[in-house]
Design a protein that fits this description.
450 residues; alpha/beta; Spore Coat Polysaccharide Biosynthesis Protein SpsA, Chain A; eight-stranded mixed beta sheet
Length: 450
């Protein structure tokens, strides 16, 4: 996906909503479809269940197949049916002008910070933008690059210094000097579409008063580098964006990600700012949701971030995300969330370790055994999953292309090799990495920002 410098033509944005279905009805319709799908999956998998039961016992066979087939199929069917029913409400205004503050926490970002600030300067937002770059123990030329941007760009930029290492320390330092009603956080390597801030603020201004945050849409900017970034391009485009759309539909986006999100300043202060957590944005979002506030997602507020370009850095990032989820579950239990949809969405996270562990310890060994002629877990019948996976991702692809990228005038780059590897092998990497993250959190390994 390639960033462009042309603002969105607002005439192209059709947010008509002629056939509105209440959220509660969408929720239960999607669950009914998912349940029927799971029943169908259970029926066609009976021979598989029977054969595996002869080897490991029926309860264990049910546990294994449930973790690699039944429950993932249910969740996938719920996702697809929910997106089919989703209709983004229209903006009340597409041209807000409220004054906003942007916080950019920076640690050794000399090669990226100037360009990030440059893209903020090119926004078509008519309101005043104040930017605070919080230098967090940088040992390179981050400070000089920020000062250069301050001289050359039109936006107002102030440089702050935070001596305590940690992104949450940097953001809380910035929070102390914010005087505007809204805060946007942006990672120091994130580039914004020219109309991104305008649509992020427009979604907030068009939302009910109880909405405290709006997550932006984060895509990859360095997808051409190598095979790892090519695969992640599809993860962000199909996987992450679709899940956030689902969560936003049910008014409980579970992560207003620090890479690019908008918050009400008073709400951030009421929950005590960013927490001391490796997943500070996850825990912060769940604290906001616990206060009966809602968190939305705006797919037109697109940004492009730099994703890990090596396997080592990808493992660190995704393990950190898994640890952040466990931190959130430890602090705020799903049943303590006051909104039913948020109870369900955070409740899904309770079973994610089970799904990842089952996939890692059963599916992957089963695939290896299949190569030697032992089809106990993975066999010819499991190949039926592939067409269903392709159908699911095809729907998500056309949905993103027609309802997001077409409106933003962004071209979808041809990346066939990345797509094939994403569908066939990405989960075989991510589940073990997630399990590694769970182990790190259980045994309290050292935390790293990056």
């Amino acid at each position: 996906m390639r960033p462009i410098l042309n603002p969105i033509n607002s005439e192209l944005v059709d947010r008509s909503n002629k056939h509105y279905i209440p959220i509660k009805r969408k929720f239960w319709i999607s669950h009914c479809f998912a349940f029927l799908w799971m029943c169908f999956s259970f029926y066609i998998a009976l021979p598989w269940l029977k054969d595996l039961s002869h080897i490991v016992s029926f309860p264990l066979a049910l546990l294994i197949i449930g973790g690699i087939s039944y429950i993932p199929g249910y969740l996938n069917a719920f996702l697809v049916s929910s997106l089919l029913l989703d209709r983004q409400p229209p903006f009340k205004t597409e041209f807000p002008n409220e004054e906003i503050t942007i916080l950019v926490a920076a640690h050794n970002e000399e090669g990226k910070i100037f360009q990030t600030l440059q893209y903020i300067d090119r926004q078509d937002y008519s309101g005043k933008i104040k930017v605070f770059v919080i230098n967090n123990c940088s040992t390179d030329q981050t400070v000089s690059e920020t000062l250069k941007a301050k001289k050359q760009l039109a936006i107002e930029i102030d440089l702050l210094h935070e001596s305590k290492p940690g992104k949450f320390h940097a953001l809380n330092h910035g929070l102390e000097v914010v005087s505007t009603p809204y805060i946007i956080t942006i990672d120091a390597d994130t580039l914004l579409h020219p109309s991104s801030i305008r649509y992020l603020v427009a979604r907030m201004k068009s939302s009910p008063d109880e909405v405290c945050a709006v997550a932006g849409c984060v895509l990859t900017k360095n997808s051409r580098e190598n095979l790892w970034t090519k695969i992640q391009e599809w993860d962000y485009f199909l996987g992450i964006a679709s899940i956030k759309r689902l969560q936003g539909l049910y008014q409980g986006t579970l992560v207003a990600q620090g890479a690019y999100s908008l918050y009400k300043t008073e709400c951030i202060r009421e929950v005590g700012g960013w927490p001391d957590a490796i997943g500070e944005d996850i825990v912060l979002t769940w604290r906001l949701l616990q206060n009966k506030w809602k968190v939305y997602f705006e797919p037109l507020a697109v940004s492009f971030t730099e994703v890990p370009n090596t396997f080592k850095h990808l493992v660190r990032q995704r393990a950190r995300w898994s640890r952040g989820m466990i931190e959130g579950l430890r602090e705020i239990k799903p049943w303590k969330q006051p909104i039913i949809y948020v109870k369900y969405l955070t409740g899904i996270n309770l079973i994610m370790p089970y799904l990842d562990i089952t996939y890692t310890l059963c599916w992957i060994p089963g695939l290896i055994l299949a190569f030697f002629g032992h089809y106990w877990i993975v066999g010819p019948m499991t190949l039926l999953v592939l067409p269903l996976t392709f159908i699911s991702y095809s729907f998500l692809y056309f949905y993103q292309r027609n309802f997001v990228f077409k409106l933003l005038q962004i071209r979808i780059r041809k990346n066939i090799s990345g797509l094939i590897l994403f569908i066939l092998g990405y989960q075989m990497v991510m589940s073990p990495v997630s399990v590694y993250g769970y182990v790190q959190e259980v045994f309290k390994f050292k935390r790293n920002w990056k």
